[in-house]
Structures are given as C-alpha cells and as structure tokens.
Amino acid sequence: MSGDFVNLMADLKEEELLALTKKRLEAKEDPQKILDDNTKAMAIVGKRFAGGEYFLPELVFSGELLKQVMALVTPHLKQSSAKAKKIGKVVIGTVAGDIHDIGLNIVEFMLDVNGYDVTSLGVDVPVEKFVQAMKDTKSPVLGLSGFLTPAFDAMKETVEALEKAGLRKDIKIMIGGGQMDDEVRKYAKADAFGKDAMAAVSLANKWFGVK
Amino acid sequence: MEKTWAELSPSQKREERFKRWLSPPGVTFTSPQAEKLYKERVTRFIKAFTLQKPDRVPCILPSMGLYAASYAGTNLATVMYDFDEMKRAWRKVLHEFDADTYVPPVLVPPGPSLEAIDYKLYKWPGHGLSKNTLSYQAVESEWMKPDEYDALIRDPSDFWLRTYLPRVFGAFKAFTQLQPWTTFEEIPGATFIPFGNPEVQAGFNAIMKAGTESLKWIAAVGEVAGEAMAMGFPGVMSALAKAPFDTLGDTLRGTQGIMMDMFQRPEKVHAAMERIAPIAINTAIASVNNAAAPIVMMPLHKGADSFMSIKQYETFYWPTFKKVVMAFVNEGITPVLFAEGSYNNRLDIIGDFPKGTVAWYFDQTDIFKAKEKIGDKCCIMGNVPTSLVMTGTPQQVKEHCRKLIEVCGKGGGYVLSGGASVDEGNPENMRAMMAAVREYGVYK
Lengths: 211, 444
Prior knowledge:
The structure holds two protein chains of two kinds.
Chain A: H1 2-10, H2 14-26, H3 31-50, H4 56-73, E1 88-94, H5 102-113, E2 116-120, H6 127-137, E3 141-145, H7 151-164, E4 172-176, H8 182-188, E5 192-193, H9 197-208
Parallel strand pairs in A: 1-2, 1-3, 3-4, 4-5
Helix pairs in contact in A: 1-3, 2-4, 3-4, 5-9, 6-7
Chain B: H1 10-22, H2 32-49, E1 59-60, H3 67-71, H4 76-79, H5 83-96, H6 111-117, E2 122-125, E3 128-129, E4 137-138, H7 149-154, H8 156-168, H9 198-231, E5 239-240, H10 244-252, H11 254-264, H12 266-289, E6 295-300, H13 310-330, E7 334-339, E8 359-362, H14 367-374, E9 379-384, H15 386-391, H16 394-408, E10 414-418, H17 427-440
Helix pairs in contact in B: 5-9, 6-9, 10-11, 10-12, 11-12, 12-13, 16-17
C-alpha cells in the first residue's frame, strides 16, 4: 500500500491518492508512515523536476496534493509526532520594491519538502527586516528573490547591510528570479545565483554539507 | 473597380498598412529632413520585419518604457499624477537619444484614474509600493475562482461586469448586485431598480471620473506622441495583445490557479481560451486601426521554458496563441512576439508562421540558435542582457551588440534590442547600442 501511495503521489493521481489516504487512515495505519511516504514522493517529484521531466505545473500540483493529504492526516496525528527533524534554517524573501512571489513560494515549498526549516519574510522586504531575521534565526543561509531590474540595487543594499551589521561572513547568500543572472550575483556581491527552485535546494544542500 | 478591404489578401493588406505607416495621415513634419528621416526609419523596420536587408540594422532601445522618469530626475510616482512632469521627462528622452523609434508615455498609467476606480490589480508607487519604486507591479491572485469557468465561457462581458470587475475595481463592488444587462427587454420597469442603489451609482460616478482624468492624460500623451512623429520618430507598437493562456494565467486565475486547472479541469481551460481568443484579436485590431504603426506587441509570460514542458506548451499554450497571431497576420498586422524568459526548448515550434510575417523578440533565449532555427522565417529581435545594460560599461554593451549584429544581422531580418526594458541605468549604455548599429550594422 505504501509503495502505491508514493507512486500515486509522485505521478500526481489526485483521486486515487486521496482514496488510498482515506483507506490507510480507516485501517488505523500509523499516520507517521503516511508522512514518511509524503517525503519519499516529494523526493521523486524533485528529481523529476531537476531531470526536466516535471515542470512548474507538476510542482504546484504536487504541493496541492500534499496539502490535501495533510488535511486528511493531520486530525489523526499525535502532537509530538508532527515535528520532523530539519536539516537547518534558511531565510528567504523578495527584496524591497518588488512584490513578486511566485518564485519565492516555490522555493519555499521545495526547501521545505527537502527538509529545511524555512522562514519566508514575504515580498517587498525592507533591508532592516532581513538583517533582523538573520540575527533572530541565526540561519546560515539567505535566499534573495527579485523579478524586476530595480531588485539589482535592492539586493546589493541588502547584502551591504548584512556586511555592515557584521553578519555577512557567517551567511551564504543565494539570489534568483526573473532578470537575475551571474552578472547580477557579482553586482550584488552574493555567493551564488540559482536558476530555479531545485537550484536553491542544491545550493542549500551544498552549504549545509548534505550529500 | 477597387477591391474592398475584406477582399484583399493578407499580403495586400500588409502592403496597404505599411504604406499608411510610411505616410501617416494627418501628420505634419517639422521639416523635409524630419520627413525624410521618418521614412528612412520606418523603411528600416519594415525591411527587417519582412526579412529583407535594410540600410542598416534597426534598434529599439530598452529605455523606451518607464526609463524617462528616472532619466529626467523625477520618478514614476510623480509622472503618474503630474502630466506636465510626464511631458517634460518624455520630451527629454525624445530630444536626447537619437534613436530609431520612440515610445510616448502610453505605458505610464494615469494615477488619478486608477485611484478613482480603486484599482486592485496593480500596485504602484505610493499605492502599495514605496514612493521611489520605479515600476508598477501586478497583483496576482485568484481574481476568478475555479468554479467560475462556465460563467466566463457563457458570457465574458457579463462575467467581466458583474464578477471580475467588482473584484479589481473597488468602486464597482456593488455591481455584483446588478442583473445582466440583457435583462433589459421590451418595456423595462423593475430592471432599473438596482441602478437606484447609491453604491451602484457611486461606481458609475467613479468610472466617469476615471474617464475625465484619462482625457487629461491622453491629451498630454498625445502632445508628446505628436511631437515625436513630427520630428520623424516613428512608433513601433500600436497595441498590446496577450496569449489567451496568459490572460487566464496572469489576470484571471493566477499562476497557481491555472497550473492546478491544467490537471483538474483541462477541458474548461481550453474552452475558456477559445472564448478569450477572439476578444484579444478584436481589441488589438481596433487599436491598430486607429494608429500609424501596423504592429501589435504581444508580451508572452507563462509559456516560457521554465513555466511548462514542451508537451504542455503544445497542448495548452500554442494552439490559441497561434490562432491570435494568425488573425493579426491575416489582417496585415505584424505581431512582435516578446518571449519573456527563455524559449530555448520552443525553437522547433515557434517558427511555424508564413515567411516574414511575425517578429520574435527574445529576452534570455540563445538568440544565435534562434537565428539558425527560425531566422529564415521570422524576424529576430533582441537581446542585450538586461543585467549588462544595467551593470556593464558602454564598451561592454557595444561589444556585445557587435556580436549580436554580426551573427543575427546576417542577411537582414534582425532588430537590435534589449532583453527586457529597464527603468533606470546609465544612459551611455543605451547610446552605445545606437553607436553599435551605426558602426557595425550597415548593410553593403
């Protein structure tokens, strides 16, 4: 049953997946096992995305399936079992003056399902808020998102503010979105540029030493 | 006897429209020299669009959107409300860049009109964005709910008026209480009643106010546009149109929504796109008929490489998009297809148009490969990287342009332009692009 579940989710079979979820819950199966299967399925989705088999629609839809499964499973979970162990903390946000959030949300989702404790600061995030969040969370990784050209300067200013606050040397910074590329990475003095949500996961894995 | 418009073939229609672009009715040029330059510039674009060799490679600068505001030392928040400042800024660009074309401030929306109707689809400086932000930005949301496809498909106008607009125009909130206007039949009585509602009346007053403000705005825009024409600078786009998938994905359902719909209700997505296509076609043709340049610009969003697979592109995006493009081609209008993001995986498909009838304008696509794959059928435009225009030196920009001109300009059918437009940045980088076409782009 568990193997079918993983495949149904990875293959995005909505109706069959939900039917099977209900069946497993009715059979009084340990809900934690379903959560573990979610993780396995999302790993397959991530692989297919990285391999060019899946694209954004599949990522978005798999997120929706995950949400639907969780809505069924959550009432059966004991409080304590809900917390899975996380690899580490990552802070992300769209820089000041830019309200685009599609890429940001997908990066948040991919980092989350790949085991990270993600704090998303949302869009149009002022420089000070990034600095404060890095202090508060002590996260070693920051992701800056931006779609428009004014984001070039906003990213640069954010990085400079972290330098000024004395935090820069302890933080790895990745950038991504719309018109971003390696030229902008240099301009903003970030550590890496990622072209999509899986790149964000690979960069985080590299920086956290995950193999 | 002369043929009526409907009897002309697409290529005859194109010829007629190009003739009108070359000699626009009602334009008085400031000098014979200005008229000569105007005709040279228009001819340059016509030849490039139709895959011929012009005198030299034409250029569209990436500074033709909202750039004038920052260039003139003001900002978008100011020019959206102060139309004298808007005119000053746009005149400054008109006079200080010796470009091949000019875009008047049509892309600066009138702030007072947006405020009057309480526009929620966009945020702009001072309204949801900080005052010094250089651009306005769309607010993506599920403006249309997943169970509303049938209402849209049944009657788009009614859906717009009573469902969609009350969500994006705050002032139209009470329009959800109206009956469809088709309820007016024979001798009306009760049908008038909802129009007595003070909130409904406030909605009508608001759009009348928006209209009044927009008249002031268009007078200012028209003034600058007229001057540019008289000085000999042609426009190169008279209308905007979208691919039906983008209308659904950007404006109605949002990215998240449309991507779910591709799995959960694909047949509704297709039916809605078929319904939207003729609306896009008719709106743009009407705009082009009122302007000089027979060009419609199509900014393309959600069909890019990273948004969907090639199979999804062929299934969901391409069919109704092609239908819209071909409707323009058959009317003799040249569509400029602005492929935002990259289209590297689409190059085997997107050249499928009659030779010399459409122009593909690339942002981040490998343009050399594009030239090779579709350059014999479509005009190619692009693509000095936005990051280079923003952060590079004039020498670097000019050098990049040289490479583009040498490869893409070969044999004609090429327009040098930026990847995307820029809202700020070193003006010398724009001038370097003009210097490059003059120095390297001349056809012998």
